[in-house]
Amino acid sequence: xxxxxxxxxxxxxxxxxxxxxxxxxxxxxxxxxxxxxxxxxxxxxxxxxxxxxxxxxxxxxxxxxxxxxxxxxxxxxxxxxxxxxxxxxxxxxxxxxxxxxxxxxxxxxxxxxxxxxxxxxxxxxxxxxxxxxxxxxx
Length: 138
Prior knowledge:
- The longest helix has 28 residues, at 75-102.
- It contains five helices and no strands.
- The protein is globular and about 45 Å long.
- It is 80% helix and 0% strand.
- By secondary structure, it is an all-alpha fold.
């Protein structure tokens, strides 16, 4: 299964936008991260309102997105970076599980901070790709 197909399937599994069939790989990851950051923010709000069902649903959605991101990693091309991201995603999944069980909003905030940094990198990636020098054949 190609990276794009894995990304599309992960996105379908977490019930997001219909723009997915038209998105490239970078856009798919950006959409996943947008959904992830929204789910984490929603979970924080549910904690504050003591909405247990909402908190569970938001953390579950965030976890599914993280699993989708982890499943889209290409270890052959990404090597050490992919392994590091896999470890980070694994940690975040476990941290969200623990936060949900212990009713610990700080765990959600920690994951939101960690993955917010990765999200920021994905947000600027298209600009970096557009600015990359193009080799010309002579």
